[in-house]
Amino acid sequence: MTDSKYFTTTKKGEIFELKAELNSDKKEKKKEAVKKVIASMTVGKDVSALFPDVVNCMQTDNLELKKLVYLYLMNYAKSQPDMAIMAVNTFVKDCEDPNPLIRALAVRTMGCIRVDKITEYLCEPLRKCLKDEDPYVRKTAAVCVAKLHDINAQLVEDQGFLDTLKDLISDSNPMVVANAVAALSEIAESHPNSNLLDLNPQSINKLLTALNECTEWGQIFILDCLANYTPRDDRESQSICERVTPRLSHANSAVVLSAVKVLMKFMEMLPKDLDYYGTLLKKLAPPLVTLLSAEPELQYVALRNINLIVQKRPEILKHEMKVFFVKYNDPIYVKLEKLDIMIRLASQANIAQVLAELKEYATEVDVDFVRKAVRAIGRCAIKVEQSAERCVSTLLDLIQTKVNYVVQEAIVVIKDIFRKYPNKYESVIATLCENLDSLDEPEARAAMIWIVGEYAERIDNADELLESFLEGFHDESTQVQLQLLTAIVKLFLKKPTETQELVQQVLSLATQDSDNPDLRDRGYIYWRLLSTDPVAAKEVVLAEKPLISEETDLIEPTLLEELICHIGTLASVYHKPPSAFVEGSRGVMHKRLPARTGSGEGTESPDVGNVAGGSAPEAAPSIIPSQGDLLGDLLNLDLAPPTTTGPPPPTSGMQMGGMDLLGGGLDSLMGAGFGAAPAVMPASLNAPVGGGLGDLFDLGGGVGMPMGAYIPPKTVWLPAMKAKGLEISGTFARRAGVIQMELVLTNKAMSVMTDFAIQFNRNSFGLAPAGPLQVLTPLGPNQTIEVSLPLSTVGPVMKMDPLNNLQVAVKNNIDVFYFSCQYPISMLFVEDGKMERQVFLATWKDIPNDNESQFQIQDCHLNSDAASNKLQGSNIFTIAKRTVEGQDMLYMAIKLSNGIWVLAELKMQAGNPNYTISLKCRAPEVSQCVFQCYEAVLKN
Amino acid sequence: MIHSLFLVNSSGDIFLEKHWKSVVSRSVCDYFFEAQERASEPENVPPVIPTPHHYLISVLRHRIYFVAVIQSEVPPLFVIEFLHRVVDTFQDYFGVCTEAAIKDNVVVVYELLEEMLDNGFPLATESNILKELIKPPTILRTVVNTITGSTNVGEQLPTGQLSVVPWRRTGVKYTNNEAYFDVVEEIDAIIDKSGSTITAEIQGVIDACVKLTGMPDLTLSFMNPRLLDDVSFHPCVRFKRWEAERILSFIPPDGNFRLLSYHVSSQNLVAIPVYVKHNITFREGSSQGRFELTLGPKQTMGKGVEAVLVSSQLPRGVLNTNLNPTQGTYTFDPVTKLLSWDVGKINPQKLPSLKGSMSLQAGASKPDENPTINIQFKIQQSALSGLKVNRLDMYGEKYKPFKGIKYMTKAGKFQVRT
Hints:
The structure holds two protein chains of two kinds. Among the domains of chain A are: 436-532; 715-823, Immunoglobulin-like (Sandwich), CATH 2.60.40; 828-939, 2-Layer Sandwich (TATA-Binding Protein), CATH 3.30.310. Chain A is built from 40 helices and 13 strands. Chain B is of the alpha+beta class. Chain B folds into three domains: 1-146, Beta-Lactamase (2-Layer Sandwich), CATH 3.30.450.60; 176-268 and 383-414, Immunoglobulin-like, CATH 2.60.40.1170; 272-378, Immunoglobulin-like (Sandwich), CATH 2.60.40. Helix content of chain B is 17%, strand content 42%. Chain B is built from seven helices and 23 strands. The longest helix of chain B is centred in the N-terminal third of the chain and has 19 residues, at 76-94. In chain B, 39% of the residues are buried. At the A-B interface, helix 2, helix 4, helix 6, helix 8 and helix 11 of A face strand 2, strand 4, helix 2, helix 4 and strand 7 of B.
């Protein structure tokens, strides 16, 4: 006899029949009826009409019947709130039952009845149960507080349940502690600033003790809670690590991963030369490897996390390459993740093995996997230079298979290899050209066109090849069109005589017949360039390209740090900060890795630390673009077609604009376009190859610095009273790359002043006059003269306090006067302070976290473009920009005249006049000055 | 925490739902069905699926998807582990975990789920405790219940839940006291075309069946404990003692449980017990292909290799096969292109082989992919890594138990590329 009989009912009046049975006098019949009701409920049938009848069965001493009725109540109380009140009395009574099982069951069920009206009746029984003598009841009651909080948070706070819950953290029973922690964590999620889990060394000790004795699930809660704690020093950190390490051998993979999170975070605080640090690193590898022998779903989550761990600490798994080799019957989602990690672990030592594997994968059946494997070969070539040759020959072998998608994928990666190792593997171009006809994907076509354009002088029939693409120009995707345009212009510049017709054809196709503004703009720019100054065009279009660098898909360091603090969570699976996607958790605390304390004196001033801590909750999430995007962006091959939202602008207007542009000079074009320049700058920084527009602005930047560098107003440096009638006021400016001290000398004395000379004391950046002070005519009484003194930065250096202090001596025929002034450090920002995005990323990662300081700029009302534009005027270059949830993140680089780099991250939220700026620099002393400059520039 | 659970069968019907908090409409599963449709194979459905308001975390076991719905940030591994635990419990209770079994026992299933999670927090997941709370259905008990009117639900507080050893109930009594341990090792390996090992690793477990009266305290020691450098223990094992002395000391749960699992990594040399000689060729322009396969024992420590089963997914272009096995039976499914050969025992004197031809689609070009050969086998009375139990002692109780240790090696994912 099985329960399936409960599913077979007579068609007619099912509810009616059940009702009759529920009201039967026979106990057995009643129970059977309740079972039937439950069965209907589980399959989603609506049996809420039976509510009063079922509730009537509640007054029973039969435990199973009671449980079944409770089950029913939980499901339907919400739809019958008035009736549910009938059940309250029974609950209150059951909460005082001598049997703790019944007490616990009652308190558990009570919490599941999600009816506002009832909740207030439940407070008293709950309060009793929280202090029950039986730990089983206490631990159940702890969870009930979380349930109640979900229904009515205010009530829970008013009734003081949160404090009771906090007290339970020190309970004698480990299970009670674990549940209290779990409940508090859940409540804390909706109250990010409530400090509910205020951990101190004593409570940490309690948790660590409970950790050893509670159930596996309790261990997960406790470990996740521990991960939020910041130890006071490296010794405390080490002792926690020691006590958490045994969890790595737990059979439950969630426990293992939570333990890994705690260790990864606290390790950060341990001095690297400590023996224990090395031991810990070694202990982390085996459990991670073991996770990969579990069920595929577990493997997937583990792999996503390992991906983060490998980026943060590659040394942990560097010898474990083989466990990531793909088995042919792994689910596809596991295969793709393994492949990713294989590339991250690839090094000169294991590259032969990896390549052999990748080649094997490239002959598998699954298309997505094969594509990724081919791409991986290309990434290996770029990452491990010694293997490049083998990679190229492997790719050629694969092209010989003529499997369409393999060939296309291979061509895309070979293009990348060309960019990394120019003039090395061009001999394969012939083979590539053979496959021209089989390419039908935009990315592959674009890659091939790029190759043809780039090496047009070596391909005899380059013009024919490109012409063949031109036939279906309007059917191509934007990416291919843009690429074709650039390639033909390149071809023309290389072989001007034979291809004049072709270039005219493509320019007219792009400018006259296209609806795509990007394409038209690029077309016009080329057209104008070619018609105005072919030599400049050559310089622009055929400019030397920067090499692409390896590891193009690294996660941003700040994001990576945050994700490491979230190992084992959804955030780690999606590689996004939790605030980016989890609903209902606005204002999630941003977690950061603790700083290493072993390094001696605290480099961060307390003030700075405060700002960092206080601003953390409002700090914004940032999302890295998916790998494909980033790669595409970096290569600037227009891999991702530009998104054009909204209707295209009216064509006639554009034509007009075009005419106008053609009429004016190149200079006006640049002038007009400059307002928008910073927005496109990041993209163009890396690769002037395809981005014609970007090239132009690069060029513009090189020719002459645009005006707009911030010059502070003149201040009086030397009042007349102190200098026998000579008043000196002045300021500093940077003009066309030259630092100038602009002085206004006023003679307020009665006699004429002559023989002016100036000298500087030694200073932090070696500023010195580059020439004599040019005051040629004698300065008569009440006369004023403005002089500007060019400065060099090659003078003797001595560290000043404040850093930007300058002591000056001025001499005239009367006396020598001394004064000191402070120069804005932005004078020292040099024009070539741009950095490649990759270099930026690497440098940022490279600079220790101790050197990072955070500041806030208040009351500034610029949007990010305007800000970036303004900063650029002062040689603060925006390297990249991201927008996340209305928050703009600008990544900027500054180079000082003495070669020091300062990297900055500026966060601004639309509508919020307060910006947060983080500065990283190897010489952290300059941060404060740089911050002042930011403030000055942005506010003026 | 875990919000709701949906059970979905292979044809995409939700046949059971359970909500621990407010009710989540089953329409949320539409996102799962979309993903299911996109996946080429049932096992390729991604385990974590985002929807606008929820996250769906699923596991596939016994051709049933267990789809958990969560709303806030929850460790996905926690959810996946829990789902596997649910499946294990169902299997434990009903013998099998099928749609029919779940439907037959729907009330017990519901009671179990209610006991296992409270407000999304795991409550009782140890099978010992659950069995005290809810008795597993047996035919006898069902009959008795109908007659006496008693129920499946225990009247007692699950005592184990609060003691220091939550995994063991008190008052256990047996007339025959016995403790059996099975050391089972699975070898995962990838062998390349030329027969050399690309990667090989051993996943080992020690499963125990302990039926001992009272509160016995056991110690288990090994001849070669240094093999076990990557281990995961049942919570009952005292970790400190293992760290210090390399001895497993524990108060066992009652009944069947997994004492430990271990992993012998590819960095240690792993013996490969069988070898395969193969010659699978397709010629360009011919509609025939050759297929030859010979199996032989390699490093088996003198034990016989049995229950050998060879399977291989042949390329799509293969229409049919005409093969002759020297022993055992072979089948080829022309629809799924799955070749499977049930070899049985390998006789080292007369190696089993499978030879013949494959017919291909006329005129089609030769297949690009090379089939991978999957081999299953068993070797009794030996653990491939060489792990050996030294002795088992019992303290805390006076009687003398029966003790037994069994070793076995199995193939896990043992793959030979051609």
